[in-house]
Amino acid sequence: PATEYTSISVIGTINGSNWDKDFDLTQCAKAPHNWYLLDLELQAETKLKFRANHNWDTKDWGGDDSQPINPTVYTLPAGTKDITVPAGTYDLYLNDITGDWTILKTK
After folding, report:
1. pLDDT tens, residue by residue, 50-69
2. How many helices (H) and strands (E) does the chain have?
3. Which end of the chain is more exposed for a tag (fewer CB within 10 A), N or C?
4. Measured in Å, how far apart are the chain's first and last C-alpha atoms?
5. What is the DSSP letter of 96?
6. SS3 for 85?
7. Residue 6's CB: how many other CB atoms inside 10 A?
């Protein structure tokens, strides 16, 4: 059976937070292993990762550095490295079973 998490968040150098503030994703009601965060504004280039239960010891998801970020959509196989995202406004999506995630630039 798939692990169930109480929360999924994104953390990083988001707007100067220096890896000390989680931004919580919302769990999809009809597909509970899918999570999303809409309209996250990044004021500068940001390094980030997704993590479960606000804890590094539970589970985290990053990138694999196999390709640079695309100006519109950033999707990479799950890995352990920080994800570098340019300034802009983004929608973030994560499936906690597959580890697949997408960061979609909206503005």
Report:
1. 999 999 988 888 876 655 56
2. 0, 10
3. N
4. 38
5. T
6. strand
7. 9
